[in-house]
Specification:
Layout (H helix, E strand, L loop, with lengths): L2 H10 L32 E5 L4 H18 L3 E5 L3 H11 L5 E5 H9 L18 H6 L1 E2 L2 E2 L2 E13 H6 L11 H11 L5 E5 L3 H10 L16 H16 L2 E3 L8 H6 L3 E7 L2 H7 L6 E4 L9 E10 L6 H11 L2 H11 L2 E2 L5 H7 L4 H5 L4 E2 L7 H12 L7 H16 L1
Helix pairs in contact: 2-12, 2-13, 8-9, 16-17
Length: about 400
């Protein structure tokens, strides 16, 4: 599995169950959830999840069981081996699970064909979600589903290599010029100063920092914008001077592997890297910083939501369950149990206190961009990534011009 996908899964199911120290606040009272138990509809509901492992499965089952006890509605959690396939079969057969994980790249298709209920505006806590996450799950001007959790990208730094290069905390880069300078100082022998994946899911942070991105704020295709040309030109320069490299060119499967094996002194990765460092590379000491700014701060985010099936037998209960699962206390409990970042702003302060290493990641929520997720976007991104892999020898503008044509065809 490539790490663009792992990135999404990390935000959805949060890959690499992270071992973070957090203080879960327990469950909220029944008064904070819609009164499903007061409804005449007592039909049981089912929840389909794509789990990252035992920790996530156990935590979700415990939360759903707690809601079931309070509401009086029976609820079953199912762990999918292939969530997309199982969900699609359920929709097509007219017997879908009531609640399910939905990724950003699945939302448009399932919303368009009527498989999902657009219930977001019915949530009492809808204003608590980060606006960028709400935007990710808004289709045809309707807020479809509650963001479950999310991930962002930040700069991960090897502390030993940093110190050996004569760098201090004051040298942590906050601008592109500073990033280039420290990357050169950290490059030594076969080790590069900075590594990241050869794909928009990583390189896209530079486009965001340059003031660009594949889509404009109003949803129009802007791949060929000068800001994006500037971003890829900057990246190409670092690749060619040897201070940066794609993780694949180093022989690593993803940035975390390049970092853990000390092929790179810094990497651009998501918060799931902390789990990989704990489980696979426990002897590598590191710190995390927000990504340097170009003309502005910029990062990317990955997320999924609690979707509700339009043909479910008990939608009132499903909404009640989702409200319970997205309360502040419950999100902090999930963060403690399997390392996700809460999608509600009310959990931010406590989460930062409980997880100081993760502060740069969650700070990114204030300015993170979503990648395009409309129908056909996956194919456009796939083609863009195939060209980005050869960025060292290709013309950035030519790559972006081709992407603009492909993106325009699906955006309209």
């Amino acid at each position: 599995m490539s790490h663009p996908q792992r990135a999404v899964i990390a935000a959805l199911a949060t890959a690499a169950a992270l071992t973070l120290s957090a203080c879960g606040g327990g469950f909220t009272s029944a008064s904070n959830t819609p009164a499903a138990s007061q409804s005449a509809n007592t039909n049981p509901i089912s929840v389909l999840i794509g789990s990252s492992g035992d920790a996530e499965t156990t935590s979700v089952k415990a939360a759903v069981a707690a809601w079931s006890t309070k509401s009086g509605i029976q609820a079953e959690v199912k762990v999918a081996s292939d969530l997309t396939q199982q969900a699609t079969q359920g929709f097509a057969g007219g017997k879908p699970d009531d609640v399910l994980y939905v990724s950003t790249d699945q939302l448009a298709g399932w919303a368009k064909n009527g498989s999902l209920e657009a219930y977001g505006d019915q949530l009492s806590n809808k204003s608590d979600f980060y606006p960028g996450l709400v935007k990710a799950f808004t289709y045809d001007d309707k807020f479809y589903c509650a963001p479950k959790d999310f991930s962002t990208l930040a700069l991960v730094i090897n502390k030993s290599m940093w110190a050996d290069a004569g760098l201090t905390e004051a040298d942590v880069p906050t601008t592109w010029d500073q990033l280039s300078a420290v990357a050169k100082k950290l490059t030594k022998g076969k080790r590069v100063g900075l590594a990241f994946g050869p794909e928009i899911q990583r390189v896209g942070v530079f486009m965001a920092q340059a003031g660009g991105g594949l889509l404009s704020a109003d949803g129009k295709a802007q791949a060929d914008a000068q800001a994006n040309v500037d971003a890829l030109t900057y990246v190409k320069g670092m690749l060619n001077d040897g201070s940066a490299a794609f993780s694949s060119d180093l022989g690593a499967g993803w940035g975390g592997e390049a970092f853990g094996k000390k092929m790179a002194a810094m990497v651009i990765e998501g918060n799931w890297i902390t789990g990989a460092m704990t489980s696979t590379y426990p002897n590598v000491e590191y710190t995390v910083a927000e990504l340097p700014a170009g003309v502005q701060k910029g990062t990317l985010q990955y997320t999924n939501c609690w979707g509700i099936s339009a043909d479910g037998d008990n939608k009132a209960a499903a909404i009640s369950l989702v409200e319970f699962l997205t309360t502040t206390d419950q999100q902090l409990t999930f963060a403690k149990d399997f390392g996700v970042m809460p999608s509600v702003q009310s959990a931010s302060a406590q989460y930062k206190t409980d997880n100081p290493t993760m502060v740069p990641f969650i700070n990114g929520a204030e300015y993170a961009q979503n990648l395009p997720s409309m129908a056909g976007a996956a194919d456009v991104i796939k083609e863009f990534n195939s060209q980005l892999a050869g960025l060292k020898s290709k013309d950035p503008k030519a790559i972006l011009d081709d992407t603009q044509k492909n993106l325009q065809a699906i955006v309209g």
